[in-house]
Structures are given as structure tokens and as C-alpha cells.
Design brief:
By secondary structure, the chain is α/β, with parallel strands linked by helices. It has a single domain, classed as SPOUT methyltransferase, trefoil knot domain (Alpha/beta knot, 3-Layer(aba) Sandwich). It is built from 4 helices and 5 strands, in the order βαβαβαββα. A 5-stranded parallel beta sheet has the order 2-1-4-3-5, with helices on both faces. The radius of gyration is 15 Å and the shape is globular.
Length: about 160
């Protein structure tokens, strides 16, 4: 059941019950990153339906990734040359996607990146090159922070 948002919240009256965030990552998550990803995934459960998919790198990976994107989802590919956001702008981006009622799929390529036919957005986590496993941690932390901002909760700690 939808409740009124807290004062100062970015949250709109649009129900997001049917919207999910899917993170499709090429390559296996290994320690020490696995614990951090599990931590943020647990924190995110309070705010969003999160699904994480891991696919092996190798021949045909782009086709396998494309086949796992939910039908009709908004696709954002992590790309060093993509659009960079500060925390508030990323929260506004996430809220706009949620308000559209479409699932949101983030795709993280493997060590050598990935190209897909259907991409609506390219997201940069910053100008530095990050290992794909660390990029996954940073993305989930950013999603958690964005959802706290949307909910009108403190997000600086």
C-alpha cells in the first residue's frame, strides 16, 4: 500500500509496486566485492525489488545479456563515456524511471566492456576506470543512496 511521502521527499504518488531494478553483470562476483554487493542488496530490499543476474563472459555474451533484459525495460549501460550524476541528480533519474512504470535494467560489462543493440542510456560512475566487480558495488551503493533521497531520508552517512 502506498503511503504519503515524507516532507521534502522526491517521491511522487505513482505506485512503484510493479517496477523492479535488474542489474545484469558480466563476470562472477568474488571476494571482497561479494560481501559489499550482498550488503547493499539487503539494504535495497526496503526500497525496491532488485534482481541481480550474472553471466559468464565469452562468445555471444551480448546476445545472452540482451536476452535477459526484461521486456520493455529501460536499459542503462555502464560506460565510462556515459552520463555522470551527483547523488541528487541520480535520485531524480531513478525517480523518473520509477514514475514511468517501466522496469530499469543496468548492464555492467565484463573486463572488456560490452555493446548492446538496445540501450537507452549510458551511465558513467566517474572518469576513472573501475574493475567491473567494484563498479557493481558502486552502482548498488548509488541506488541505495538514491532511494534514501527519494524517500526523504538522510543520505550523507
Amino acid at each position: 500500500m502506498w503511503r504519503s511521502p515524507p516532507a521534502g521527499s522526491l517521491l511522487t504518488a505513482t505506485s512503484i509496486a510493479a517496477v523492479q531494478v535488474v542489474v545484469i553483470a558480466v563476470g562472477r562476483l568474488r571476494p571482497p566485492y561479494a560481501d559489499d554487493v550482498a550488503h547493499y542488496a539487503k539494504l535495497l530490499r526496503r526500497y525496491v525489488r532488485l534482481e541481480q543476474l550474472e553471466l559468464r563472459d565469452g562468445a555471444g555474451v551480448a546476445e545472452r545479456v540482451a536476452s535477459r533484459v526484461p521486456a520493455g525495460a529501460f536499459v542503462s549501460l555502464l560506460d565510462a563515456g556515459g552520463e555522470a550524476f551527483d547523488s541528487l541528480a541520480f535520485a531524480r533519474f531513478i525517480e523518473a524511471r520509477r514514475a514511468s512504470g517501466r522496469d530499469l535494467a543496468f548492464v555492467i560489462g565484463g573486463a572488456f566492456g560490452i555493446e548492446l543493440e538496445r540501450v537507452e542510456h549510458r551511465l558513467s560512475l566517474g572518469p576513472m576506470t573501475l574493475p567491473h566487480q567494484l563498479a557493481r558495488v558502486v552502482l548498488l551503493e548509488g541506488l541505495f543512496r538514491a532511494h534514501r533521497i527519494i524517500a526523504g531520508e538522510p543520505y550523507h552517512h
